[in-house]
Amino acid sequence: MKIIVPTENGKLCEHFGHCESFSFAEVDENAKKIISITTKIPEGGTGCHSINWLASMGAEVVLAGGMGPRPMMELMQNGVKVVLGCPELPVKEVVEQFLQGTLVAGENTCSGGDHAHCHGGAGHCHHE
Fold it and tell me: Which of 47, 94, 103 is nearest to 74 (CA)?
């Protein structure tokens, strides 16, 4: 299984559309172990427009703090499970918690409303 984590400074980035890179965790779901973690930046840069690239890279699960409704819907349409409200922890730690079933996910930190950091600008989540 391949788990994707939007990343900034080695930790889960709270806002999907603001990350500096994506971490790809290849895991053995049955053994609940991480096989490898690599970090990549799409050729066109990160942001909500990276959905097709993530799907083409074999994403099965995305662990994120927050995400706008459009990228969330596009990921799910590509067969990718989206887990929102994840804490800003080191990538290895958040993936291990997910595998062990101890990950505490909360509210989507990019739920629309008055969150200016989720709107406008290149590479940001756009709500429609």
Answer: 47
